[in-house]
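FAQ: What does the model actually see?

It sees only this:
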Amino acid sequence: CALTLFWLDDYAGGVFAPFRDATNGTATYGGGRYLLDTAKGADLGGGDGKVVLDFNFAYHPSCAFNPEWSCPLAPPENHLSTEVTAGERLT
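And it is asked to produce this:
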């Protein structure tokens, strides 16, 4: 799998990876989850131009808890066909 990463200028800055997977809408929030941003302390570094992704740090966006929040959705290239059973879940 490959994910498109984004850079956050606001919030706490850093790398941001929104994604969807086969658990969305059942075990996790239907709109997807987020991975890797400095505010959550999930920057595991990397080397040679690579980033370590630890899905144990996957979390639900704020809009999962309050409909008044507006959250960015994962782009189509970040829709994973497999289940990511790590990270924050609804149950």
